[in-house]
Design goal:
This is DUF2948 family protein. By secondary structure, this protein is mainly β. The protein has helices spanning 25-35, 66-69; strands spanning 19-22, 39-41, 45-48, 53-61, 73-81, 84-90, 100-110, 116-122, 127-132, 137-141, 146-147. It has one domain. The strands form 2 sheets. Strands 1, 3, 4, 5, 10 and 11 form a 6-stranded antiparallel beta sheet that branches. Strands 2-7-8-9-6 form a 5-stranded antiparallel beta sheet.
Length: 158
């Protein structure tokens, strides 16, 4: 008679890499929550004008596994936006490629016919505005998760 086997536990499982697409405001809220507190160097922002694509290589907190793991992990992810006609920024020193930015939220002010302005709000008062013909954003993990060097969750002042 064999010993009873223990059932698998949810906390033992690790979710796979994220591959999300935002096509409407509800989708964008989910994407924004998962990208909150991601950090990235200025040098990892790219606007491909001819392809009408803007992207960031982020080091994001793995909020989706936080409760199950009990430790803080990050993963590198690409956050990309399609149909981008213009990019503007404020409060960002583009001349300092070593400057590290922290993403707080991603929102959209919708205009007519699905066009609008996507706003990436950064810690410290910086922002990136994207003029788009329609909302099409993706968030895709591109590396394996790693333990956050600080071992702590980001803190926000009230």
């Amino acid at each position: 008679m064999s010993a009873p086997q223990e059932d698998a536990r949810f906390r033992d499982a690790r979710s796979g890499p994220l591959r999300l697409r935002a096509m409407d405001a509800d989708d964008l809220r989910i994407l924004s929550a998962l990208a909150q507190d991601a950090v990235f160097p200025v040098s990892e922002m790219s606007w491909l004008r001819g392809q009408r694509r803007f992207g960031l290589l982020l080091n994001r907190v793995r909020w989706e596994d936080r409760a199950a793991l009990g430790e803080v992990e990050r993963v590198q992810s690409v956050l990309a936006f399609e149909d981008v006609g213009a990019v503007r920024s404020q409060g960002i020193d583009r001349a300092d490629p070593n400057a590290v930015l922290s993403l707080l939220s991603v929102t959209m002010d919708e205009g007519e016919d699905g066009a609008g302005r996507i706003l990436l709000t950064l810690a410290g008062g910086g922002a990136i505005a994207l003029e788009v013909e329609a909302l099409e954003a993706t968030l895709r993990d591109v590396t394996r998760p790693y333990r956050a060097p600080s071992g702590k969750l980001p803190q926000h002042r009230d």
